[in-house]
Specification:
By secondary structure, the protein is an alpha+beta fold. 24% of the residues lie in helices and 32% in strands.
Length: 226
């Protein structure tokens, strides 16, 4: 009797586990060796009030130092924690500009990290200020939030040029057992208004065709409960 009871309990546990994983499965309509429609990956573009670090270097350190902000003690987001370290950053104005040393005002809103680096390098060369400059651009305060039925909700730093909604779910430790993979909402500010997009993570068609598959700074990802 005890042996049969143990077998019954084990079987029920397996069934419950299979049922839970089935409800939380991602892209269930995309099987191994099948071909799905891949979404176009879009890079993060800078917006007003974003902060970026721009470092210029060359064979002449004294000359390149003219185009760098002084390194000061500051804080920068790292994952969902805040850590202090040297920070040299520009805050993009409401008009989308930064005030760059020697050069003056530069319009940077709408640029990617790579295109901003090329823009600064080209400007210095065109004005015959620095011919062999190497420009490095890093995000300083860009972040997104993941809330709801995830294992580790919080605010997470954006350190890469492209962050997908699956990346964000992974940062937050995946869905909880109560999370509904079919009802994930991304809240995004567009044109002065907040807009909500619903994404079904269990459907490759819904996921990869969604305009929020690639996230932007300040997006909020909310996982609804079942």
């Amino acid at each position: 009797m005890n042996k049969n009871l143990i077998i019954l309990v084990f079987a029920l546990a397996v069934l419950c586990s299979c049922g839970a994983s089935g409800r939380m499965a991602y892209v269930r309509d995309l099987w191994p060796d099948s071909v799905g429609c891949a979404a176009e990956l879009t890079e993060i573009r800078l917006q007003p009030y974003d902060k970026v670090s721009i470092v210029v270097s060359s064979r002449d350190p004294q000359l390149s130092a003219l185009f760098n902000l002084p390194v000061v003690a500051g804080s920068v987001a790292d994952g969902d924690t805040i850590g202090g370290r040297g920070l040299s950053a520009y805050t993009i104005s409401r008009e989308g500009d930064i005030d760059f040393p020697v050069v003056g005002r530069m319009h940077v809103a709408g640029l990617t990290r790579d295109s901003l680096a090329r823009y600064v390098k080209r400007t210095l060369a065109d004005r015959q200020l620095l011919a062999d400059g190497v420009v490095t651009v890093e995000f300083a305060n860009l972040s997104l939030s993941v809330l709801g039925e995830v294992r580790r909700p919080g605010r997470f730093a954006i350190t890469r040029d492209c962050v997908t909604i699956l990346d964000a779910i992974g940062m937050a430790g995946d869905l909880t057992d109560r999370g509904d993979s079919r009802k994930v909402v991304v809240i995004r500010r567009e044109g002065g208004r907040q807009r909500a997009y619903t994404v079904d993570l269990s459907s490759a068609r819904s996921l990869y065709s969604s305009p929020v598959f690639c996230l932007r700074q300040n997006d909020v990802v909310y996982v609804s409960p079942r």
